[in-house]
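Lay summary

Proteins are chains of building blocks that fold into shapes. Our project writes down both the chain and a compact code for its shape. Here are two examples, one after the other.
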Amino acid sequence: MGLQGVPLGLTGPQDLLDKLRRDFLQLRRVPWDPHIAFNFFATAAHLPSWIEVSGGPNACQLPPTPLLKAVWKIVDGEAPLKPAGAIPAQRHLVVKLDGWPARMLGATVQAMDLASQVLTYWETVECFPTHSETES
């Protein structure tokens, strides 16, 4: 274990999901920090490829979703994280979406709300290999 109980290294998709959870907790503490928000969304964006490489049972069957498309728009710079909130206690980030994600999620979305949906998605989707599958 590394500092503060964080494991050293990332070796599989479950480790990346654990990182996503830690990133979410950081973002919840400082929802106005674009660096922390981007780190969360970049981690979420790469989970599908980590699952595919690990050979998870449903690795190649993840359907496209407006949520995952929105994440990639943020990571690719098509939907930048912009500050909002006039007073310090209400500071947060928003994302302006277009196309399919905007029709399903809204044209302007608070980054924290989107992050919450993304984390819920990854915690409920059944595509992570079990420990026995990753040890072989």
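And here is the second example, written the same way.
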Amino acid sequence: MEFIPYKKIGDYQFGEPIQNMFPDLDYENNQYILSKKYSIDDEETGILYKFGNGYFTQLHIDLPIYKDKVLFLGKDLTDEGQMDLIINNEEYIERRGYWVFPKIGLVISKDKEELFFFDESLLQNWLLVHRPITSW
């Protein structure tokens, strides 16, 4: 899966309607899916998709479960050594247990077990260091 900051992760573009990504969901009888916040958790792959108002805003990867690569500028972000290259060479903000890379829309947990890729619409939330990450 390739990551292009603030544009796409894998086959999915940030800002893409949920109906394009998951066409088999029953939107007609479940209007809450298009509500303010909605998530789809694929526990088998370790991927959590997050949506705001029906649009793709964030992808969370649980690395102990995830079995593929995530490429960013030729670096595999699932590899701890490659993560260290990003941490050592990109500007970041420390946010409790996370490094937030605002210029590229990436968050790496300090235990290096989680990756978050986010849309620019969530940047201000990630920059608020005391706001819980579950609040948006």
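What can we say about the second shape? The radius of gyration is 15 Å.
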